[in-house]
Amino acid sequence: DTGVSQNPRHKITKRGQNVTFRCDPISEHNRLYWYRQTLGQGPEFLTYFQNEAQLEKSRLLSDRFSAERPKGSFSTLEIQRTEQGDSAMYLCASSSSGVPGNTIYFGEGSWLTVV
Amino acid sequence: TQLLEQSPQFLSIQEGENLTVYCNSSSVFSSLQWYRQEPGEGPVLLVTVVTGGEVKKLKRLTFQFGDARKDSSLHITAAQPGDTGLYLCAGALSTSYDKVIFGPGTSLSVIP
After folding, report:
1. Which among A33, A48, B26, B34 would be 20 to 30 A from A106, CA to CA?
2. Pseudo-torsion of CA A50, A56, A58, A61, nearest 10°?
3. pLDDT digits (tens, 9 = 90+) for B62-106
């Protein structure tokens, strides 16, 4: 059983460019989460899917951010017109709604540096 | 506002000492998890607690979920340098499709 997989692990981009991150959850998990984390802080909730439905999107998230999970399996997070403040680690996690406790399991994260 | 608070924010102790980290909220959680994270890596699950008042032990780590399911504590006995890391608590909100939110973390440094 493979864990949550994220790619790319590292991305350096120029300000104003678009970037896309991909997340492949644990295969039997129907829930998928995206978080953003800066150095020394806890993960900040961005958005959340159950199957292909996006259940919630953080109000802190600007319109430049969009996430999709078209077939209820992998997900993509796109950031348009990147800004230096977008530099962070983007974490994906997955869980199963059928398991009590809704424990989420993380991937290794995707580091974004906007220069 | 759905917030999880953790204390202390930073902790530096000598090897062999005991410590407790606290996680508090005004919200009720259907479950609460503790994670440990090392620099540049994703958080790694330590434990999930589901029942109010529940106590779980993992070797030298003891986790407790508050009776009202609003708070939790993590106690480490005889800390070792390998325990160094960022400890995160996370709660699943039953009022929000089990959305999982995180506290700001406690950065622990165990000095040999």
Report:
1. B26
2. 80
3. 999 999 999 999 999 999 999 999 999 999 987 777 889 999 999
